[in-house]
Amino acid sequence: MGHWFSRNIVEPGKLPMLLALTSFVVTFLVTRTVTRLIRAGKGPFKNVSSGGLHIHHVVPGVVLTVIGGFGAVGSDRHGVGAVVFAVVFGIGAGLVLDEFALILHLDDVYWTDQGRKSVEVVVLTAALVGLALSGFSPLGVDDMTADERQDRVTFLLTLALNFLLILITLVKGKFRMAVLGVFVPFVTIVGAVRLARPGSWWSRRFYGRRHRARARSRIRTYRHDKRWTKVRRRAQDLIGGFQERVPGRDSTPS
């Protein structure tokens, strides 16, 4: 059954990635649900602790990620082992990235505004893996003909150009666009051409004496953030439950 599914429904070799993505998303959603129940004091779930030490779920997540990652590397892509280790890796990655903000800030910021970064990273990761699973390849290789693939010079020039655009987008302070541009090159063209965000390396380096460019950058960034920040925060609130206020429960469940 699994062999028929991988041959007829999923592109050959991508079944482990599909299972890893599915287990990743399901683990994140289940973990968020459990932590919200713990925070609200509902259900049979409790915080995990050992000897008075609070154990965050990033800890078992790291263990599972390591096991799944090394297991996947050492197994056959089409075997049962690849499927099992893909699921293990997805579960571990879901637990780890759900507390990405904790790792980034080295502080328990799960229910704070800084904790929104975890939801953002999880959504971005799922989107990128979904793009790869759907057939998108970096630099648009899927759109190249057989003759173009044989032309090494064209490929290397395309690679260098896209890398340059990604680098420019990054130094302009547009991290999300740079990441998406790895899979959709057109995104980095837009990011590289448009004005840099205030405070970015590009802005400090090239807008120092260009007062008009600096002012336009601030206005454009303000308008962009005003338009999209509320939408992004509402989505994060819906997924992560950040607006759920529980009096007397300020501790972070894991």
What structural keywords apply?
254 residues; mainly alpha; two-stranded antiparallel sheet; 2% strand; 12 helices
Structural account:
The model is unreliable at 4-8 (pLDDT under 50). The chain is mainly alpha-helical and 254 residues long. It is flat. Strand 1 and strand 2 form a beta hairpin. A two-stranded antiparallel ribbon has the order 1-2. It contains twelve helices and two strands, in the order H-H-E-E-H-H-H-H-H-H-H-H-H-H. Helix 2 (15-40) runs antiparallel to helix 6 (116-134), helix 3 runs antiparallel to helix 4 (80-97) and helix 8 (152-171) packs across helix 10. It has helices at 2-8, 15-40, 58-73, 80-97, 100-105, 116-134, 146-150, 152-171, 175-181, 185-193, 201-206, 211-240; strands at residues 49-50, 53-54.
